[in-house]
Amino acid sequence: MSDEVTRELPKPFHDAVVHWQQHNFPDYPRLAEDWERFFPKDQPFCLCARIARSTGDTIDVGERKGQPKATAPKDLDPEAAQQLLAIIRAQASTEFGSIQQHQATLFRANDAEDQAWVLRVMAEELRHGYQMIHLLTSADWSPVTEAKPADMVEEILSMKTGSHVLAAFNLEYDSFVDNVVFCAFIDRVGKYQLTMQKVAAYKPFAASMPPMLREEAFHLATGVVPLRRWVQEAAEPSALVTMDQLQRAIAKWFARGLEMFGDERGGETNVRLGLKDKTNRQAQDEYVAECEQMLDDLNVRYLRSRYKDRDRDEIDRVYATLKRDGGRYDGTSWGEDLLKLPQRAFFRRRGEHAFELTGFSGDRFEDVEKYVEHVLARLPEAYRASIDVKHWADVQRKVARGEVTLKDAVKSMPRLARVGGACPCANSVRWVVDGSGAA
Amino acid sequence: MTEARIRPLTELDIDAVTRIDEKITGRYRPEVWEQRVVYYIRRDPDAPKVAEVDGRVVGFMLGEVRGGEFGLEEPTGWIEFFGVDPAARGGGIGRLLAQELLDHFRAQGAHIARTMVARQDRDIDAFLRAMGFAPAALTALERRL
Fold it and tell me: Is A175 within 8 Å of A108 (Cβ atoms)?
């Protein structure tokens, strides 16, 4: 019945992932305890690699379109193999990184179901990381790297919040609002990446995407559904989560999500090499349209909750007018009460808008101090005090004063954690241990 | 009318599905559809379908393959919820949705599809019969509690 086969990693690598979980995802055992309550009849969770059987055999895009897909790295164009290895490492980093982020505020959920959903998302991210390690360890990558499989795994498992490949995975969560907004905005980028990678010219990689995508659909719902409930409750004076809090969280994450697509001017190489089927800008445009639709739905849900005596058609008219003209309607202000997507150039550090002085609504700033003040005023209070924001403000000022080149600014990252942190166990300095001593 | 495009349902379709249900039943029930949509997305996100015309969702059909229900061990494709915007009816949207969902059931290894319909829902009954469904050798029983 299943279109998938499952694979387990060789023992030293499997044990290394389990060991990593014990240190970084201590709530994992609760998933099995809560499974019957929240996911009755669903297949039990499996920490394994899942591989689709029905992946195509020929390359769909790029210079080698129509040729057979590679089944080993050595059969890929060397440039494609190099690029793919970087993609797999980055993908693995995001999977493990998001667990570290979610874990920090998981206990602050005020709804048991929301918490259970995030817990399942974390476990499935662990499985996705496992899947990437499977890709790295089940093939011979020596034609493109001198690093041994154990060293590649070691590098991935050693990353911490602050040393991951992409900026979105280096931000600390401030509250459970971040767990949910992250699922809605950052996992949505993940969906785009996985969808684009379904066509990859390396068949084992392409065949890994469909099972991950099926799980990713639930991750997006884990973001959107609690958001829908929160905006409904936000229409009441006693709301625990306000529209203002949600708006600030969106301002925190949206720019980082945009940057996960890569520079808007790039992506042709991956298409040419047959690794993805869209350029960065094409994918980003579609992502922004989805985010826009998500916020429209949330705003309408808020208005319907706030004006229960008005019918659907009237609320639709009111919302369309507020979105087009701004202003107010019967106590609701477009500017203050409803959710808006920041302009794409707002609070950017990478890509074509990196370190531009562009405000939330697209307004341009000449004075960097006023711009920093403008951005800070739109971010969550706890995040404003973070090393990440301090670093951004510092670099933003230096770019404006000509003290740092844009090229160096784009490369600059705050070091929140030491790269290469080893396992905290006193009896082990590596995650991957030969033999049976890893766990 | 432009040809409908059938695609898998996503979490961003909750609002559209809620609207169609509201148009049909007169009840605004977002909580109900949030739970249902998450259920199907969680179980098999490729199964539930929506029909889009000119970028607008005008119909939905939710179901999945399960085995072991009511002692029926064989994998069965269950059609459980569907609706078409009253303004978009008559264009074969229900048929397209059903065809796609049944194709998915087949691909998942089901050799039979099942559903239930209330006796008074004559339109739904006629639609399902037109799709090839026939009375089953099963009796639906109930008891007031």
Answer: yes
Which residues of B are less than 8 Å from A227 in CB distance?
none
Domain that holds residue B120: 5-130
Task: Give yes or no for a contact between A70 and A201, defined as CB atoms under 8 angstroms apart.
Answer: yes
CA A36 to chain centre: 28
Do B42 and A225 count as a contact with CB atoms less than 8 A apart? no
Torsion over CA: B25, B28, B30, B35 (sign): negative
Residues in chain B: 145
Q: Is residue B137 part of a domain?
A: no
Which CATH number characterizes residue B76's domain? 3.40.630.30
| pLDDT classification of A424: cutoffs 50, 70, 90 | confident
pLDDT tens for each residue of A83-131: 999 999 999 999 999 999 999 999 999 999 999 999 999 999 999 999 9
Whether the pLDDT of residue A255 is over 70: the answer is: yes
Strand partners, A5: A51
Chain B CB within 8 Å of residue A4 CB: no
So what's the ipTM on this one? 0.94
Reduced to 3 states, what is the DSSP secondary structure of residue A269?
helix
Please tell me if residue B44 touches chain A, with a CB cutoff of 8 Å: yes
